[in-house]
């Protein structure tokens, strides 16, 4: 071959090299197409085998309950943190429950105390797990996380929640106590008549805007342990992070609520089918807005950010945000300014024993 290349004119050598290169590209392209065809064939065979196995198990009486029985037994608990757009999100559940055939129940605790007594914990766990008339059910309320595995019951609920930038949440709550919102405008709030702005409160060192008031999202996720409610506890922060990762299906953020709803609709269509469209077009999805809310100045924000309590609450918020964005990156794609859910990206193969 080397001798022939020496004897060939340069132009012919160049043409032969180009021809050889094109031939290799063609062969590689054909190999790639064959690989794709083989993969598609394997997936088709695998899906067929899965269907045959499911049919065989059904015929053999392996399934003692209807195929949808598990979906009908699901209970969701949304232990909502105050002023995180929780009412806006909950109203979507109320709008969908009739159409999607599930029950919505509000957990109303005395004086909005997020910590239940031991006897109420037992009663609540029994209700949620054994109240069949209320299944499938969506429970919501300002209640701290409760670990159902401690009570010796079968089946655990699906926990979801939403968190918010801690200072923005506190500002919203501050003005809510004074001016209420457009949800129930006639209701008299606890601090009604107090015209002092949030900035004036911070400047004067008031109790309603103190850094201790930031300590809320961590204990809500930490739960019913005394240490959870010790302001500034590092143990409580670590426990809240652990629960967020291990006990919650999904935790969204107020600032990206639409993405949170879209992902819930994809993961739990039994409850949230139609939720995304309702959020975009429905009247109730945005109905609750705090009245007379004024954004804080940079000086007020900087003063709060000097506290260790803010640093811990912000660390938890950033932790939740990072986890949410990680889950979202593996669930949706953006195209032309719109988000699209990814299709199923796994399948089963090499299923044995083979079905005759």
Helix content: 40-55%
| Overall average pLDDT | 86
Give helix and strand order, one letter per element, not per position: HHHEHEHEEHHHHEHHHHHEE
For the record, the count of structural domains works out to 2
CATH-defined topology of the largest domain? Rossmann fold
Quaternary arrangement of the chains shown? single chain
Low-confidence stretches: 62-67
CATH class of the largest domain: Alpha Beta
Q: Globular, elongated, flat, extended or rod-shaped: what is the shape?
A: extended
- Could you tell me how far the N terminus lies from the C terminus, measured between alpha carbons in angstroms? 55 Å
Strand order of the largest sheet: 2-3-1-4-5
Question: Biggest sheet, in brief?
Answer: 5 strands, parallel
Rg, nearest Å: 28 Å
Number of helices: 14
If classified by CATH, what would the architecture of the largest domain be?
Answer: 3-Layer(aba) Sandwich
- SS elements, strand count: 7
The percent range for strand residues is: 5-15%
Keywords: Coiled coil, Disulfide bond, Glycoprotein, Golgi apparatus, Membrane, Signal-anchor, Transferase, Transmembrane, Transmembrane helix
Subcellular location: Golgi apparatus membrane
Coiled coil: 24-51
GO cellular component, one term: Golgi membrane
Could you characterize the architecture of this molecule?
This is Heparan sulfate 2-O-sulfotransferase 1. The chain has 356 residues and is an alpha/beta fold. It folds into two domains: 2-59; 72-341, Rossmann fold. It contains 14 helices and seven strands. The chain has a five-stranded parallel sheet with strand order 2-3-1-4-5, sandwiched between helices. A two-stranded antiparallel sheet has the order 6-7. Strand 2 (103-106), helix 5 (118-130) and strand 3 (137-140) form a beta-alpha-beta unit.
